[in-house]
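Review box. Two proteins, two foldings.
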Amino acid sequence: MSKRGAARVRAPSGTVTFLFSDIEGSTERWDRHRAAMQEALRAHDHLIRLALGANGGHVFKTVGDAFYAAFATPESATAAALDAQRALTAADFSAVGGLRVRMAINTGTADERDGDYFGPALNRVARLLSLGHGGQVLLSGIAADLVRENPPDRTNLADLGAHVLRDLERAEHVYQLVAPGLLRDFPALRAAVEPPWLVPDAMRTRYFTGREELLARLRRQLVERHRAALSGLGGIGKAVLAVLIGTLAGSNGVAAPAAVAPASSFPPATAKAIDGAIASWFAVSNAPGAIVGIWIPHKGTFVAALGKADRTTGAPMRLDDRVRIGSVTKTFTITVLLQLVDQRRASLDDPVAKYVSYVPNGRHITLRMLANMTAGLFNYTEDANFPHEVERNPLRVWTPRELVDVALRHPPYFRPGTGWHYSNTNTTLLGIVVEKILRKPISAIFQTYSFLPLGLSSTVWPASTALPSPYAHGVTETSNDQVVDATGWSPSQSFTAGQLISTLHDMKVWAKACATGAQISPSLQRQRFQWVTLPPLKTDLKYGLGIIYDHGWIGHNGSIPGYTTEVEYLPSQDATIVLLVNSDIMVDKKSPAALLFHALTSIVTPQNVSG
């Protein structure tokens, strides 16, 4: 094992992009061409080092013919891979029957110690490398997202779909670098494209147990080192970092480290404004942490996990942390309903009485009215006793019927179709209807209709009060003004109105898929966008079939004890914003995520500032 060359380029820290490479079939070549392979390997090493060094790569380790390099930006890592592959292709390796090198690139947080790196980001890039073939350059989903904003000339990224990585819980959406001078056609990637939830439950339990221990060890290491670092990508300033750390100081006086320092391709002035807005938001909201993703083609990308995932331990937020997404679940529920309408298994004009008999006036309440919130049914979460019951017994498992029954104890707000009132009761009833139509539990329905088709490998319908690791702890405020950890509270209080768990990456995919009608027919998408503007709605803030129009942005927000979210898409700019916050404590009657969404849209889309 060697660490030569470590001093030539300064080792990046914070958000780091890793490039791993190795020679395909090198063992066989050593057996057949031992003397020639010695010379070939020297030439290979020289070309790899030249390409890495020319693009700012820090070679922190070599093992045999494998190179491990760290870069400050994914763009420089991609350029290095491109230069290296072209140089290797041009070289004469005929004495050993040719030489093909596979490469993989991933961006994430990493711990650096004594010139070496540790952490999940390296595990992921190593597993990604194992999928590839000689001559192929693979990128993880997050690396591809960042590179796409400033790609090397004449390059493209080919979408290879979601693939399971050995020993890792979350599948990876894989992309291949395509450019002149690079091979393009390869066999299928080596990993089986099998979703991790198909693993038998017993095996799954043992797997997660071991994984939790590993994650806990990594989290402790980050907390004990008390470090918060920026990668140096455009617009990140020391002053802004100082403000952010100061506002995040915990009760023990130790600032919350940034799990993934902001990675931005926005112009420096814009990136600085984003940093300042987030720092100000932390000071006002007192939220423990936030995961932020902004993707605007031809303008820039900003991706960051900031603050604390756990106030007690000080563990930092991570880009792959799962959170409860609350009412964003409604977009999934109603998309499934629309798919069933496409399949002619239901009609939006069906009365709810066709499926359930216990809804008063159910013959005059249609599925469309439930979906666009014009049914008039009381919102069970507005029942005066409901939040107190949740607080008194946060582990209670509610049945969907119990939730509806809370609502039915109250008179309706108005006659069906004559008004608009946001009501979780409506989407809970739609979940009951969908289960009756398909005769399956909603967990299996979401998996078949949404998670599998879109590769949402980290989106989960929880079977218990637990969240799969890794996850962020969420805080809420009780009726006596105490801030408590609500992570383990039962999500059954929301059912199909708010029970799902997800991640930044999956919500980025979902935001565009939902807003553009990727899973339904164009005619139904047009019906989805038949906006309701009945008071208190207005022309720039209106509601469709389980989806919100907010000053041009299309998507949905979410709130559940411990968490708030914004998952939004702006068609006019092909822009996406995803915000995942581990607090639902209101600030001036606004959720923390909504407050941050407004601040960020004021900067990045000033013509489309959220209401």
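Next protein.
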Amino acid sequence: MKLPDGVRITADLDSDPELAALAEQVLTPEALDLLAALHREFNPRRLELLAARDVRSRALEAGGTLDFLPETASVRGDTSWRVAEPGPGLADRRVEITGPTDQKMTINALNSGAKVWLADLEDANTPLFDNMLSGQLNLRRAITGDIDFESGGKQYVLGDDIATIVVRPRGWHLPEKHVEVDGEPMSGSLFDFALYLLHCGRLQIDAGRGPYYYLPKMESHLEARLWNDVFVAAQQAVGIDRGTIRATCLIETYPAAFEMEEILYELREHSSGLNAGRWDYLFSVIKKFRGAGRDFLLPDRNAVTMTAPFMRAYTELLVSTCHKRGAHAIGGMAAAIPNRRDAEANDAAMGKVRNDKTREAGDGFDGSWVAHPDLVPICREVFDAVLGERPNQIERTRDDVHVTAAQLLDVRSTPGEITEAGLRGNVSVGLQYLQAWLRGSGAVAIFGLMEDAATAEISRSQVWQWQSLGVELSSGQVVTKDLVNTVIDEELAKIAQTVGDEAFAHGGWDAATDLYREMATSEDFADFLTLPAYERMP
């Protein structure tokens, strides 16, 4: 492979012919030139913005708080601006399905009947180099119609009416360690974004759609400004008209909730809306206010519903902000997996999904997420009942909503207990997810739910928070490091019994357990579980 000056591939392609062949197809000379150019122009700003996150975190640990920014009051007060019109294929988003970009999921998601597929290169994926390259290739083949898959004698092929693809690249904090430019690891965000734009942008335009993205884990409008500048530069580099890209931003960090309007403003020529990301949002609450004591103490994660006062404020603000500016508001994830063995349990789970989607549609959301194709009809039925023939309800501006900073910060009013079952659930889910993640699977079925990296983050964060505060469980036990380690050992033993001795012995459970134990019981809180996990990956 011929590499541009200053570019280095650190993966061992010589010993892996299949990976080398993938790299030849995806990391073309043109692609590597674009990656190098974007890295050199934008990586310094990315690193500065990550440093700014640390400064804000230290200020919060020192007793500071979050609020709407006085320096951007003019943006919020200016009623004249709106975001771009929806791109082709993005006006109607009443059902969106999410999942990784392996061949089977690519085909099933596109055939699911959903309006949009969030093709996930982030939380539902693991950043094995093979995954990152094959995912790009699968996306291109899906657009050209040259993709199929066979498993268990069943053939999977694309139908005629497929969903609009929206790609989620990795967040600004994540590197792509297998590609270096001038001695620095590339930004995972720029790597994922640029390869899709180069290989699929023109193909999508020719197909009557466009290169569309979901942007994760931003913490400020300045990070959105960086994305917009990247879009402008990249569109010029590949010969696509400025404003062709559309991006939906996930509001899944606590600081971003106070800058929703500014984030839309920075991306307004490329913006297509905001999304409410539940588990990462709760994880961010713990992370950002980890030194604030019991005012930000959360009960069992399954007890924190979207009707909790601070979560209600967050979603109401998101809808009203989006519709004020002509943008889509997309609701949160329904992660339930249909249970075909237990009709009663399945009916209960599907009832919860229906109730959740009914609340969202009634609140003004324009669509919502599901993780399994069988949930698409439920979500579609609920939104059909509200939208009818309209593609969305952006015209419903929710002028009745007036959310204050105090309401967004009112975690203390969240009802619910902290229980031993909640502690054990967090530990077991965290262990099982990490074991799968380290072995290459980012979307994992656990206890009837499709879990991703956000689940692992909230699971280990809650355990860390409860231990650091010495919380008393509803049973009377106090959460200490010793108790957490005991529960880890006991839950691991249950897993070993379930999977069997041989599978457990060769399943990489020691590495997963060591990492989870470190993240859940260390004195200092690690900002992201995926960073040390990625270091343990080849």
